[in-house]
Design brief:
Length: 133
């Protein structure tokens, strides 16, 4: 028969095991940094990748990137449904780790003046033939 003090020592050891080894079971992955660039403006050029991406000629984002044409994943594919080709738009550009996406895509008035250079052949991404109209 085990002595009382040995029994207490075994119970204490069994109770300590989940906290000692349990912490090693948690994810070692650090949370990804999320950066949000709000109110980016551009011209909607259509959709790509079966509607999962939007093609936008966006204005420069100061300190981040120059104006260019990009095909970007959109958080909600239905956001582009009511936007016409060549319509000025605004959106938030979200950078999360190595991933990038568009959120809050909305049309701006046709009278909106955008600061966009003419797109060159080198920076033009072709939209799907099934783009919104």
């Amino acid at each position: 028969m085990l002595s009382v003090s040995l029994r207490f020592a075994l119970i204490a050891l069994l109770l300590a095991l989940p906290t000692t080894f349990g912490s090693g079971c948690q994810s070692e992955e650090a949370p990804r940094e999320v950066t949000r660039y709000e109110d980016v403006r551009g011209r909607f050029m259509g959709t790509a990748s079966g509607g999962r991406d939007v093609v936008i000629h966006h204005e420069a984002i100061p300190g981040v990137m120059p104006a260019m044409v990009m095909s970007l994943p959109v958080a909600r594919t239905d956001e582009a449904d009511a936007i016409d080709i060549d319509q000025p738009v605004r959106f938030d550009l979200i950078v999360e780790g190595s991933e990038i996406r568009v959120e809050g895509l909305t049309a701006l008035p046709d009278t909106t003046t955008l600061d966009l250079p003419a797109p060159s052949d080198a920076d033009t991404t072709h939209a799907d033939a099934s783009t919104s109209a």
